[in-house]
Amino acid sequence: MEQENSNAPSNRDMHVVDDPTATQHGQSKKNSRGHKPKRIKLNGKRKATSCSISQDVILHKAETPWKPKRKQDQTETEEDTKVTAELYKRVRSVLNKLTPQKFQTLVKQLSEMDITTEERLKGVTDLIFERIKVASTSKQGEYVNFRAILLMRCQKVFEKDKDSEKEMDERRKVIEQTQFFCRFEDTGKREELRKELEISEIKEKNRSFGNIRFIGELFHLKMLTENIIHDCLFKLLRAKDEVSLECVCWLLSTIGKDLDTDEARCKWIPRGNSKTPKTLDQVQKKVKKEIQKRQIFLKQLKAQHKTKQERGSEAKGSRSPSGSEMCASDGWDVGGSQTTQRQGQSRESSRGREPHRVEIEKSSKPAQPTAKELTDKEIEKKTKTILDEYLHLQDIKKAIFCVEELKSPSVMHTFVSSAVNYVLERSKIARNQTGLLLHELVKKNVLSVSVYIQGLIEVVRYAEDMENEIPNIWQYFGELMGPMVQDGSVPLNFLLKAAEPLKENNKAGLLVAEVLHAASHREGHKKVGSLWRLSSLKWEDFMVAGDIKKFIVDKKVEFTVGDNNQPSTPTVSICMEAIQDKLHQLLIKEKADNEVIFDWIEENVDDPIDSLKFIRALMTSVCESAITGSGSSARVLPEVIKNRGDLLKKYLDNRAESELQALYALQAVIHKVEHPQGVLRTLFDTLYDEDIISEDGFNQWEKSKDPNEQEGKRIAMKQVVQFFSWLREAEDDVSDS
């Protein structure tokens, strides 16, 4: 043993080949510990080497490493799958949030998603169908139409109902057969099959109802023709089963009034309330209407009860008449043979007793207790409520009615001061709208001019103290008071009393100048200057005489001191092309203020309100100034339309023909820019919300068949189908209420 072992190297002869630095530091023993050495021969001697794994080895990676083709395809497929899965996740998120209130925003998000392949488009369509509880052969590189896939899916689901019905029949037959031929121990299995069949029937029924309602809504949006709907109805009627007949009822209740039938031509209105979803605003309006109805009903009941009490007290104070006298006085007839005679007696007796009856009423009727007036705090609270609702709904008639219901004449000046204070530091639109409301209240004698001035002075007297905190305080007051200067219904002399508290500190001129500028923004310098001169007002009434000339130039109110004998119509006629070019320059290139545009129109256009060509030119320039971008990236700036609202309202003047011509001009603008998605709908919404175009104007444009105005009309109608559907739903809600 010793001889054999003598050839083996000793531990001293072992050399570890690993890290040279480690060897130098005497760490070879530590590094070799726990590793099985590999023996090699060096210089005739066997040596042991050991590989260390205690340190990480960093390999160099190429930026574009080579991969086999199958792995490349697999990587691309995985990335595409991840993108598609993320897309479906986002689509599900949008569908989960879908409500009438958020509809437009979510539709925009959905349209901006990266749906670039036919597979993704089909997947999105399937997700939509899953939400309502209810295969293309295109070549590579071809565009796929979402509408075509959607309608194809509708058709497949509709035709699948027949196959599912056959399947249900077969399952019923299987259950019936097992009932006669199965053994006793198979009874539980038969019950299980029956329960599964019931669950499947419920699912299929819900899917059929959802699909048929979806088809009806597609017909509302003009995506399906009447021929397709008729075909669906005939197929459902031929089936004669309960589910198909119920689907017929669902479909007719959804689209019955839009079908070309005799009932539809007679303006058939479906029974029951519409089951379409409503926005939060619509729900709130409906609740308010119901509350108002209930209050009116209670008032009527109280009035009837009060009338009965008065009649009872009157009867007690007078002689109790006999049966024949009661019949004569009330006009009722108990016997048919005495009808003519009693009617004559009734008329004669009523003539004879009328003065006496009035005297009895005067003497016996108790004095009416005067209604308790509201306190200042109650008026302030109600003012805020009225203004919040008015500024939200923009319903000035309802706001006037609410103010009339306050019935507290001795504190109505508090309503004015509270309204001015409440909106003073809010938006320009809020101040303008509040000023219009106050003007209408004065115009309709709900508020007197003296009450308006009294409430205004309560706030204006502190304007100078507020100037440090609110630098634009005079401009804000001008926007609130400017609407009073428009149609002459309120004499301009009211400025004398309203600015009285500011004369002492020479601030009255600042207030008056801002009021005139705000009015000029709505009516133009020419008209406001004319009203100023007719009122016999002078700047000396508001400020020190020495500063007047400089003040007029600095505040740009030269229109108040112009010659009153200037001609009211232009002396030189300008062609319509030149007018169009000038409007384009003022509105788009220079972006001039409404005051400047008013002045130019009044000086250069002959009868602008009566000129339909001018209306079209003005509408064209305003709409073009509100559209930014080009092609599919074109967008609308609604604030531009809002800022030009006074300009359009003045010359449209709520006239049907002018509104129709304005919409024709808008149609031509959209056709010129090739119908970018969403632009026309946004313009329609803004024009309607700002009361520039009335509901009748939009309906007139929709029904118009003028052959000269059909260019681009068909595409435009498709883009605003939802707008007119919303209008009709609003009309139905009003008629139901």
TrEMBL record:
**Got a GO cellular component term for this one?**
eukaryotic translation initiation factor 4F complex
Q: Where is this region: Disordered?
A: 1-54, 62-81, 302-377
Q: Where is the composition biased (Basic residues)?
A: 27-48
Which residues lie in Polar residues bias regions?
1-10
Q: Output the Pfam families linked to this UniProt entry.
A: MA3, MIF4G, W2
Q: Which family does it belong to?
A: Belongs to the eukaryotic initiation factor 4G family.
- The name this protein carries in UniProt is Eukaryotic translation initiation factor 4 gamma 3
- Origin species: Magallana gigas (Pacific oyster)
Q: Specify the taxonomic lineage.
A: Eukaryota, Metazoa, Spiralia, Lophotrochozoa, Mollusca
